[in-house]
Design brief:
InterPro entries: EF-hand-dom_pair, EF_Hand_1_Ca_BS, EF_hand_dom. This protein has a single domain, classed as Recoverin, domain 1. It is built from six helices and two strands, in the order H-E-H-H-E-H-H-H. A two-stranded antiparallel sheet has the order 1-2.
């Protein structure tokens, strides 16, 4: 998909792309208001890469799909943990808005940051979840639909 083709965001020299594993360099700031404008733009572009339907919110399904594009193996439990920690009370239930997403990354202490920047993966946890779903007679594809 590639971000920043939208007129909402400035075009960057290095186009941010989950599919190509091109992520922005995070600024030293830990608060969004302390970020340089270009860093905030980069974070917005990264957010847009996850927000596939363009509604300004990231759902669990969109988060899962974005992590898969990065060749990660996110478990349902990991996606749930990320959603809970990045969710702000002003966002609709079970969604993450830009501010919560950005703060999770800027803190450098979140599971979202670990997945994107530290090479974290939950492949073993995912394999256990798939096996449990298989034993229940459900397919793994239905794990993220409710």
């Amino acid at each position: 998909m590639g971000c920043c083709s939208s007129s909402d965001y400035a075009v960057l020299d290095d186009e941010i792309s989950l599919a190509d594993n091109v992520l922005p360099t995070l600024p030293n700031a830990t608060r969004l208001k302390d970020c340089p404008a270009e860093s905030e733009t980069s974070l917005k572009c990264l957010f847009q890469e996850f927000d596939r339907d363009g509604d300004g919110l990231i759902s669990a399904e969109e988060l899962h799909a974005g992590l898969l594009l990065l060749k990660k193996s996110p478990s349902k439990a990991a996606v749930s943990r990320i959603m809970k920690t990045a969710h702000l009370s002003c966002a609709p239930a079970n969604t993450v808005e830009f501010k919560g997403f950005a703060l999770a990354l800027l803190s450098r202490r979140s599971l979202l940051y670990d997945f994107l920047y530290e090479g974290h993966d939950t492949k073993e946890e995912l394999e256990r979840e798939i096996e449990e779903e298989r034993k229940k007679g459900k397919g793994w594809r239905g794990m993220f639909s409710g």
